[in-house]
Amino acid sequence: MNYKATIEIMLRETILDVQGKAVEQAIHTFGDNGINKVRVGKKITFSLSAETQINAENAVKTICEKLLANPVMEDFNYQVEQLNQN
Questions:
Q1: What phi and psi values does residue 26 have, to the nearest 5 degrees?
Q2: Beta strand 2-11 with 42-49: parallel, antiparallel or unpaired?
Q3: Structure confidence at residue 33 (pLDDT)
């Protein structure tokens, strides 16, 4: 089966998000002071083949833990959806 993985990686709330602060300050220069707590993260998508949904999810989780996310500084969420077989 073919699947699509969508992964979101964000700095943990306890880690200062320097990029987020820079974006927030830039937004404020446009006069919109109602925006705050800006956080910048990463979104990664890819397709993969696996025998089952659970196998696909396990593969994505392993990739996140071992390669894509820094477990000390970042949290991740992922979604795996089956692609239509055409």
A1: -65, -40
A2: antiparallel
A3: 84
